[in-house]
Amino acid sequence: MTDKKLGKHVSQLDAALVSVEQTLGVLLERPISEVCGRLTAVERCELEALVVYAIDTLFWILLKVNGVPPKEHPVMIELQRVQRYIGKINKAKEAVEQGEKREEGRRAMQVDKAAADRFIRNALAEGKDAEDGKDAEDGKDAEDGKDAEQNGE
User: Fold this and answer.
1) DSSP code of 47?
2) What pLDDT is recorded for position 125?
3) Do residues 52 and 80 lie in contact, with contact meaning Cβ atoms separated by under 8 Å?
4) CA distances in angstroms from 102 to 13, 40, 50, 61, 107, listed in the order given
5) Alpha helix locations (H) across 29-112?
6) What DSSP designation does 70 have?
């Protein structure tokens, strides 16, 4: 590798490390209990996995810079373990999101009790009126039948 390429890679690494310091600096300014206190359980898991992954990645970079093959170092096992946990966290997030969608669907399918009460009350009232009218007609027919019997019809 030429000095020019090496210098380019070193400056890229330096810029990346500055970016990491700025990003993690926001988290490190406050106590972790304060930061985590405002997060949900899933967000807290994501944050903790992010911090561990960042530390492991920085250590991997340190090994690489010092000429130690990181693939043969236990840090690779740790990185893979953290990646598995990140996958589990993502699955949990998806399950939570699907549960929220199901809950929204259930809310959409809930019956408006007041409207149902009015509907039933009105239907019963119409049915009662119809039955009262039917009874009145039945009574009239019955009376007509008695009149016909008395008249010899």
Assistant:
1) H
2) 75
3) no
4) 46, 20, 29, 44, 9
5) 32-37, 41-65, 74-109
6) G
| 4/7 Cα distance (integer angstroms) | 5
Residues 5-62 pLDDT 10s: 888 888 888 888 888 888 878 777 888 888 888 888 888 888 889 889 988 988 998 8
Q: Which two tokens stand for residue 30?
A: 């406050």
3-28 and 41-65 helices cross at what angle (nearest 10)?
Answer: 150
d(CA 111, CA 129): 27
For 31-46, the pLDDT digits (tens) are 888 888 888 888 888 8
Q: Which residue has the tokens 């990646």?
A: 83
Q: How far apart are the first and last CA of the chain?
A: 125
79 within 8 A of 57, measured Cβ to Cβ: yes
Domain boundaries of the chain, sorted by first residue: 6-110, 113-153
Structure tokens at 91: 């699955």
Top-confidence residue, 101 or 86: 86
In the block, tokens 């380019």 appear at: 8
